[in-house]
Amino acid sequence: MPTKNNAWWALCALPTLQLFDYYIEFILRLYYILSIYYKDSRLLLIRGSIMSLFSSLTKKTLFNLAVSAALCASASVAAADTNSTTNSANNTANDWQFHVIPYVWAINMNGDVQVASEKVHVSQSFNDLWHKMNFGGMIWLDAYYKDRFSLFLNTLYARLTDNVTEGPVTVDTTANFALVTGGASYKAYMYDFSNGKSRFEIEPYIGARFTQNNVSLDVLNLSFSDNQNWTDPIAGVRLNYFLNENWLANLASDVGGTNMNTDTSYNITALVGYHPTCGSFWKRTTMYVGYRYLQQHYETGGGINKFNWQMKLYGPMAGISISL
Q: Does the N terminus or the C terminus of the chain have fewer Cβ atoms within 10 A?
């Protein structure tokens, strides 16, 4: 969401225009900033043309004006071209915005897993999973182009281990679980409220969600494994609401899968964010808390090769977004 601070940063980032004196340069930049702040491309074009002409005229002596109006016109065009090129280069440099968002999702799992003819009910709290976790990590990456189009990647990985002893026999279990979601989004609708601080956005997105569920068993020096991986195409929408320069809310939901009977997924995430406005580092961050619910159904094979995963993953989330 554009702010006065962003506009001031854009002003400081503009290169010095050696063809103009400092006063004219300041006026040109000020109008450029106002055009960005009020999102009016017409204002940008009109003011740019007027000020380019004004600058060109102030740089010409009365003698030049008297000698040839054509020369003045040519100089005006040249000045406009120079200003346009400078602004274009500046816009290109600021077109992309990158964010890195490490986060924690306190996952709870509830559902059924069937391998061959054996079906097991799973009910694991985040505390249960935490004590079995050897390694885990979660991170969201995204890149926005002109605050409209974005590419995103959301990665979650966990390695869990457990062992069960029955008499003289010990069974060691290792599970590698991963969720990787990637795609693209576009802000199809943006509405700025009259208070100048609030904004509402509708942002549809498409992509794919990869699930890895690899399990291995070690018992009596023998190893057994069952590796299941699948990818669901997804389509969804994000609703973004910026209350003011500090507070925002985000609601995202998507559906995925390739078959209503054997491969479906439903995902919904609700977040509230706080964006500090002080401190050189903290001004580039937004802190989030929220909740995510993901339901998956994946079924494949038959007989001894049958695998049926029907699972609900849910829990609170917290993370911090860092603008690069």
A: C
Coil vs helix vs strand at 270 = strand
SS3 of 197-245? CCEEEEEEEEEEEEEEEEEEEEECCEEEEEEEEEEEEEEEEEEEEECCC
Residues 246 and 275: their CA atoms lie apart, in Å, by 5
d(CA 101, CA 114): 35
Distance CA 154, CA 151 (A): 11
Six token digits for residue 292: 């995510």
Give the integer Cα–Cα distance in Å for 45 and 265. Answer: 48
Identify the domain boundary among 67, 94, 121: 94
Q: Which amino acid is at 236?
A: G
Rounded Cα gap, residues 111 and 293, in angstroms: 13
Question: Quick one: 215 exposed, middle or buried, by C-beta within 10 A (0-12, 13-18, 19+)?
Answer: middle
Residue entry with tokens 């002893």:
165
How distant, in Å, are the alpha carbons of 39, 124, 266, 286, 320 from that of 314?
40, 11, 12, 23, 20
Q: Residue 117: how many CB atoms within 10 A of its CB?
A: 8
pTM to 2 decimals? 0.69
Residue 283's domain is classified under what CATH number? 2.40.128.90
Other Cβ atoms within 10 Å of 230 Cβ, number: 19
Mapped onto helix, strand or coil, the DSSP state of residue 310 is: strand
The string of pLDDT tens digits covering residues 174-219 is: 889 999 999 999 999 999 999 999 999 999 999 999 999 988 878 7
Main-chain phi, psi angles of 34, to 5 degrees? -60, -40
What pLDDT was estimated at residue 29? 54
| Domain limits for position 60 | 4-94
* Same domain for 106 and 89: no
